[in-house]
Design goal:
It is built from 2 helices and 7 strands. By secondary structure, the chain is mainly beta. The longest helix has 11 residues, at 113-123.
């Protein structure tokens, strides 16, 4: 899993950064993998995660219906909000202007799994092609009578 304990970073001054190498396979239920580096930046209200991850997916060609393997590059930039105050342990309210925001759980674990899954979906082509010049399904045309 792509889980990072950020309790020490949450106690650090605003502007503190940490870099983490990511090399995970079998992420979540989608059987994804991710390799690369992310930087975590302590902001006044959250942790900002930025980074570049390489992943790959198995797709079906929109023309020939053949299966193929497609590498993807994910440029991640997401804000993760704490659910509790790291020093007092009291609950923290996620800002109203951030509906559906990613959160840091009550154990100060920042889980990148859902962000990687969502970024992978966004990076997939709408009309996947096994190659640019794929001829598609080859079928015989009926002969003229």
């Amino acid at each position: 899993m792509l889980q990072i304990n950020v309790s020490q970073l949450m106690k650090s001054p605003v502007g503190t950064t940490r870099k983490y190498e990511i090399d995970e396979s079998n992420i979540g239920d989608d059987d994804l993998s991710a390799r690369g580096e992310v930087t975590l930046l302590r902001t006044g209200r959250s942790i900002l995660v930025t980074g570049k991850l390489d992943t790959d997916v198995d797709l079906t060609c929109a023309r020939c219906l053949g299966e193929f393997h497609k590498p993807l590059v994910l440029n991640i930039e997401e804000e993760f909000f704490p659910m509790i105050d790291v020093t007092t342990g009291s609950p923290v309210t996620i800002p109203d202007d951030e509906p559906g925001a990613f959160t840091i759980d009550q154990n100060n674990i920042l889980d990148l799994t859902e962000a990687v899954r969502q970024y992978t979906i966004l990076a997939m082509p709408m009309k996947p092609l096994c190659r640019d010049d794929c001829p598609g399904l080859l079928s015989e045309t009926p002969s003229s009578k």
